Amino acid sequence: MARKQHIAIFTTASLPWMTGTAVNPLFRAAYLAKEGDREVSLVIPWLSIKDQELVYPNKITFKIPLEQEAFVRKWLEERTGMVSRFNISFYAGKFSKEKRSILPVGDITETIPDEVADIAVLEEPEHLTWYHHGKRWKVKFRRVIGVVHTNYLAYVKREKNGLIQAFLLKHVNAWVIDIYCHKVVRLSAATQDLPRSIICNVHGVNPKFLEVGKYKQEQQQRGEQAFRKGAYYIGKMIWSKGYSELLQLLSENQDELSALQMELYGNGEDSDQVRESAKKLELDIRIYPGRDHVDPIFHEYKVFINPSTTDVVCTTTAEALAMGKIVICANHPSNDFFKRFPNCHMYNTGDEFVKLTLKALAEEPVPLTDELRHELSWEAATERFVRVAELDFAVSEKPLPSASQRFMYISSDEVRKNIEEASAIIHHTVSGIEAARCAFGAIPKTLRPDEQQCRELGLAFPGQ
């Protein structure tokens, strides 16, 4: 019998951190493995206890990887009703306070044995390869697919010397992705253009949100009031997640929106500043700690207002639409996927924002069609992913030209391959120099896992 296709999904975060790169790759693994015709491994970062305390909410920590694996599987099964059929492996990671993200430690390709290294999916490929020093991804795996989640350039531009940093980062991203990926999937045009890339939203929503939407639609059909609350926003409480834009819109249009009482839910480094700014501007806003968006407290809201333009495709917008709500969002490339949904209203100016918000508060949402509901599902997202990632692509080696032909002619493919090989050697060399790594933003001493990480992950520590 032919061996099943093996897909290894590497990502930059894990539950209980409720971030997109923890949740979406988890669902992708579950739905790719659902039919049992593929072997799927989800490869996630393992953090030592000090970093867990910085990253994971509600003081949740794990002593060993098996505890975290059990947590992840339970969370997934509660939301999908499926028994997870994929493997979970861990690589050593460290949390960067400066970048507010987890960075890999050592050569994370080693988590997958060579004999099953078939297809690798790099969720946030630039993030996973900036400081990669180990076996080359394209050498280890037959095919490497990158899925771009984050608009890093938008975040960097908000920092000091942001334009210069964004210019450099743009070229670094293109460089490492060209070296390490055969194909790149950009969730929307909000991300930078990249070599061999295609734009397609390959994310879906937790099926629980679709269940809420169906129930709300049934209430509407029975003539009941499905939504009893007004407008809200949920998102990590940092300024770059749309909070600065939201407060500005509300402040500039207080008179017109006097009937609007906005409610915000989120945790984050800028929580105190957001509260202080809202109070200073005398805005009618209530601010609450973050919750899971599927929590029943959100079911009664009718309008979801999301002014963020730093997301690539906003997961909470998709979830709100799945629950049957009206969404008010910016007319921005990150929201292009949602234009087909009748409950999604996009604004270009402050005046349009006011008109659309007042209209949404006064009307009822349009019931979702079965077709549009399917478009939001992970089944549809998985179908799109399999298609655009060309998972069934067969690598066929072209016959080598004769000696006389090689002497007379060098193909453009050979030239490109030689240039890529030289680039890979340069990156491998630079990424192996501690001073160079730190100069470019790597966490010090992350060329290989430390003794504690090796002990926790059951790895051999050099010198033992």
UniProtKB/TrEMBL annotation:
GO terms for molecular function: digalactosyldiacylglycerol synthase activity. GO terms for cellular component: chloroplast outer membrane. Residues 225-334 form the Glycosyl transferase family domain. It is found in: Plastid, Chloroplast outer membrane. Keywords: Chloroplast, Glycosyltransferase, Membrane, Plastid, Plastid outer membrane, Signal, Transferase. GO terms for biological process: galactolipid biosynthetic process. Its main location: plastid. Its EC number is 2.4.1.241. It catalyses: a 1,2-diacyl-3-O-(beta-D-galactosyl)-sn-glycerol + UDP-alpha-D-galactose = a 1,2-diacyl-3-O-[alpha-D-galactosyl-(1->6)-beta-D-galactosyl]-sn-glycerol + UDP + H(+). It comes from the Eukaryota. Belongs to the glycosyltransferase group 1 family. Glycosyltransferase 4 subfamily. This is Digalactosyldiacylglycerol synthase 2, chloroplastic. It comes from Ananas comosus.
